[in-house]
Design a protein that fits this description.
The protein folds into 4 domains: 4-26 and 36-511, Sodium/glucose cotransporter; 533-617, no CATH class; 622-731, Helix Hairpins (Orthogonal Bundle); 740-887, Heat Shock Protein 90 (2-Layer Sandwich), CATH 3.30.565.10. Helices cover 68% and strands 6% of the residues. The chain has 895 residues and is mainly alpha-helical. It starts with a helix and ends in an 8-residue tail after the last strand. A hairpin with a 2-residue loop joins β8 and β9. α24 runs parallel beside α30 (619-694).
């Protein structure tokens, strides 16, 4: 047994770790945290709460396969995120959306009333769900410490844990006044918790499977002796399969619509490409989680067979029963991670919705108009902090008085069904142009009524009062008429509520036209890819507005400096004169966006409307304007593409011209170099010849030395001329290739033999490595010997005494790859691409020019290209590596 003080100390250290991670991430001192797709994907695992950590084990033990839909539903839906969430991220980014309520309400005309109702729906669904997490924290804390849950709130340890969580959430969750800002600290802490809860469940699973039992087969065999084992691990015919399918639909809907999931998946998305990582990483995470649920559940039944224990807490009871305190505490921390991450993100998202969609638009807009930026920002932050505390306290009270005796599974499923009522309006927003505010509102209210009488009253009211009589009971009984024989209560209410909700939404939307703003945002949402670059241009507004009036409103929230900076960017983007006095539709939209992150889209609209006079626009006019807008966008896109093509062509021409200038300069330098090279041996020959012609009394040994010099310099002169002529013939294909089968290692040794004496003189270590399965290839052996000798000769010139020359032969992807490394001086990076050019000499060459014609590498390149290969040079380690690549099997035609 662990004492309450010791466990509370562990919790304090754990929360301190979260604070530290959040603090370090907020400092952004390391790129590890910024734009990391795995941190983004792990943050999505906030989906795995105490319900999935504890509750699904209880469901597996009591109801068999019914635990799987909570995992299978999201896994089925997540692949579609690459299309759905990419669109939603774009819509949210250009409209500065900060919550699920903003996203839906903006689409249906930016309605204040709809955003308020959506906020209430989320409160109804999520506050009990937060209470569920507090229940799990409290019960597992007392389970680990083997103490009774105190009815006195001040003596309940869970109270202090909840207060600490509220402090953490309010501090890091309200650091940005703009609610659409990315909260790197919170998200990094959530990602850490997601990793830890998976890590701890794996530890428990391995412990149960391989230390308590002898593997999966042992548990399966022993559990198979239970009379209900087979029944609970099959679908149970049509009835079970239908319930299972609808439970998958419930959880699949929830993964898109839970406010915490919308926040982590959409608001906290930094790059769209991170979604590509999430669509495989997150399902894999859920699958790993699922693997251990079955063995833990049935191991618990085997160990506690006949004992009155809560199967939801088998994960803690098993190691505790076996006296393993370390694993017990690890499991507790995993459950704590599941609960804390859900509480933090849910509290933050609900506080944003409460402030932006209820408190501010229905009470404080008048006050904000009169205050300055500092006071307004402080007020917004304080409202959100108060909201976070209030929400968590409400959830705590809900736990104490309503769900103390209910299961984690039932509360979680009810929350999912309630939040699913947003599905028709949500998916209609991004897929259906005709969806209207009236249809969305009517469908949502009807669905909520069905959920209220079908689920909320029997779950919470009846369980609290234990009184089943009265009007509420009669209304509840009236639903008996709609009973579906094959469905249990929760799937049944889900089916009817969504059927009625979707039906009303569709019928009313088709029957009514909606107003112009609804249709305007419908086009913006559905065709987001067309409007993303110029979304302000696609916003339709007509009336009288003055820039100065709107600027005054913006300064109340952004301050003068940020407002002027934002206006400067806007004017430059659309090429608007800074002295313009009247505002157009683009500036109205731009201003609403600037305010939306701070006070919500609905409040932003109200504030801007307060200083403008808008004219009515007919729906027909809207459609005409939108059509013109589309045509303009298409035209602009074509012009942009043409402009980009012209720009690219201009750049290519500029580069070509620069290259020609460089080539011309290099050619001049080369000709100067060749003239110099030719002049040197000619001068030496002439000087020696003149001395021999003028003086007959020269000693024979000196005369012999002069004659040898004449011969040497003549050979050098001949070499230069031959190289120039040979390179010219290679370029013009005048030299025929003689392609035959040869042993590449023998060819290399033939090339090496004439140079071995000079290599030994410099004490250079030379080696060759063959990784070839077979050494016979087709190539021109004479040319390859020449290539090897040119590169090796080049290496000899630049490699210091006691250096290294190494050749390596490999075959990759049906290509012969030869790498020749030497420890010579590094080639300047800017020269690496051009050292094979016959007209090129390094600008940074500051050493005495080695002997030779200077055409060796240019000849090497032509020899390789003539045989269909490539050659490149790169600086590697302590020297330079030349890489030659030839086709391993290729039939060449002789030139």
């Amino acid at each position: 047994m662990m004492s309450s003080f010791a466990l509370f100390t562990v919790v304090l250290f754990y929360l301190a770790l979260l604070f530290l991670v959040a603090y370090l991430a907020e400092k952004k001192t390391s790129k590890l945290w910024i734009n990391n797709p795995y941190i983004y994907a792990l943050s999505l695992a906030v989906y795995c709460t105490a319900w999935t950590y504890y509750g699904s084990i209880g469901v597996a033990a009591t109801s068999g396969l019914n635990y799987l839909p909570i995992y299978v539903g999201p896994i089925m839906v997540i692949p579609a995120w690459i299309y759905i969430n990419t669109r939603i991220v774009r819509i949210s980014r250009v409209n500065k959306i900060s919550s699920l309520a903003d996203f839906i309400s903006l689409r249906y005309g930016n309605s204040r009333s709809l955003s308020a109702i959506i906020t209430i729906v989320c409160l109804l669904a999520i506050v009990p769900y937060i209470g569920l997490q507090i229940k799990a924290i409290s019960e597992t804390f007392h389970l680990v410490t083997e103490t009774e849950i105190s009815q006195n709130i001040l003596k309940d340890n869970a109270t202090f844990v909840v207060i600490l969580i509220a402090l953490f959430s309010s501090y890091y969750g309200t650091r940005y006044v703009d609610a659409s800002e990315k909260r790197l600290g919170i998200i990094s802490a959530i990602a850490l918790e997601s990793f830890l809860k998976l890590f701890f469940i794996i530890i428990l699973g391995v412990f149960v499977i391989y230390f308590v039992f002898n593997g999966f087969s042992d548990i399966y065999e022993k559990a198979g002796r239970f009379a209900d084992f087979k029944q609970k691990n099959t679908f149970g015919g049509i009835e079970g399969a239908m319930n299972w399918m609808i439970l998958c639909m419930i959880s699949g809907t929830a993964i898109c619509l839970l406010p915490r999931q919308f926040h982590t998946a959409i608001i906290e998305n930094r790059q769209e490409k991170h979604i590509k990582t999430a669509i495989w990483f997150f399902p894999l995470y859920l699958l790993v989680f699922t693997i251990f649920i079955f063995p833990i559940a049935w191991a618990g039944r085997l160990i506690f067979n006949g004992q009155n224990v809560n199967p939801e807490f088998y994960s803690i009871l098993i190691p505790q029963h076996l006296g393993n305190t370390w694993i017990t505490v690890c499991v507790f921390l995993g459950g704590l991670s599941s609960s804390i991450s859900m509480i933090i993100i849910s509290a933050i998202t609900l506080s944003i919705m409460l402030s932006n969609n209820l408190i501010i638009p229905y009470g404080l807009l008048g006050k904000f108009k009169a205050e300055n930026e500092a006071k307004n920002n402080r007020s917004i932050t304080n409202i959100r902090k108060f909201s976070i505390f209030a929400l968590i306290i409400m959830a705590f009270a809900f736990y104490k008085y309503f769900i103390l005796k209910t299961s984690l599974d039932s509360v979680g499923l009810i929350s999912f069904v309630i939040i699913a009522q947003l599905a028709p309006a949500f998916f209609g927003a991004i897929f259906w142009r005709r969806g209207s505010y009236k249809g969305a509102l009517a469908g949502l209210i009807a669905g909520l009524i069905i959920c209220y009488f079908g689920l909320i009253i029997p779950q919470y009211y009846f369980s609290y009062t234990q009184e089943f009589k009265g009007v509420l009971r009669d209304l509840y009984d009236a639903f008996g008429f709609f009973t579906i024989p094959y469905l249990s209560r929760i799937p049944e209410i889900f089916f009817w509520s969504l059927l009625v909700n979707t039906g009303l939404f569709s019928i009313i939307s088709v029957s009514t036209k909606g107003n112009y703003r609804e249709r305007n945002f419908a086009e913006l949402y559905i065709d987001i890819d067309k409007y993303i670059q110029n979304h302000e241009n696609a916003f339709i507004w007509r009336g009288t507005a003055y820039v100065s009036d709107i600027k005054n409103i913006l300064e109340r929230f952004l301050g003068r400096k940020k407002t002027e900076q934002a206006m400067r960017i806007f004017n430059l983007k659309y090429n608007i004169d800074f002295q313009t006095e009247t505002a157009d539709s683009r500036f109205i939209k731009f201003s609403e966006n600037l305010l939306a992150g701070r006070i919500g889209t609905a409040s932003a609209k109200i504030l801007i409307e307060g200083v403008t006079k808008e004219d009515k626009i007919s729906l027909k006019e809207v459609l005409n304007i939108l059509e013109e807008s589309k045509e303009n966008i298409i035209l602009n896109k074509k012009l942009t593409e043409q402009s980009e093509e012209l720009q690219k062509l201009s750049n290519d021409l500029r580069n070509a011209n620069e290259n020609l200038i460089i080539k011309d300069r290099q050619k001049d330098d080369f000709l100067d170099s060749v003239a110099h090279e030719l002049r040197t041996p000619i001068t030496a020959i002439r000087s020696a010849g003149e001395i021999l012609a003028e003086d007959d009394d020269i000693p024979s040994d000196i005369k012999r030395e002069f004659l040898n010099n004449i011969i040497t310099e003549s050979d050098r002169l001949s070499e230069i001329i031959n190289d120039i002529l040979y390179l010219d013939k290679l370029e013009h294909g005048a030299i025929a290739l003689h392609i035959t089968e040869n042993n590449i290692m023998q060819t290399y040794k033939k090339a090496l033999n004439p140079l071995i004496h000079m290599i030994q003189q410099k004490n250079i270590h030379i080696s060759e490595v063959s990784l070839l399965d077979h050494e016979v290839f087709t190539y021109d052996e004479a040319r390859m010997i020449q290539l090897f000798q040119n590169i090796l000769g080049n290496a000899l010139k630049f490699t210091e005494d006691q250096g290294i020359i190494q050749a390596k032969f490999t075959e990759k992807e049906n290509r012969l790859v030869i790498t020749l490394f030497n420890t010579g001086k590094h080639i300047p990076e800017e020269d690496l691409e051009m050292i094979f050019d016959k007209f090129y000499q390094s600008k940074s060459q500051n050493i005495l020019k080695p002997a030779g014609s200077g055409l060796g590498l240019a000849i090497c390149k032509k020899i390789v290209q003539a045989q269909g290969g490539t050659i490149k040079a790169e600086n590697s380690g302590l020297g330079v590596t030349f890489t030659v690549t030839l086709a391993a099997d290729r039939d060449y035609e002789e030139n």
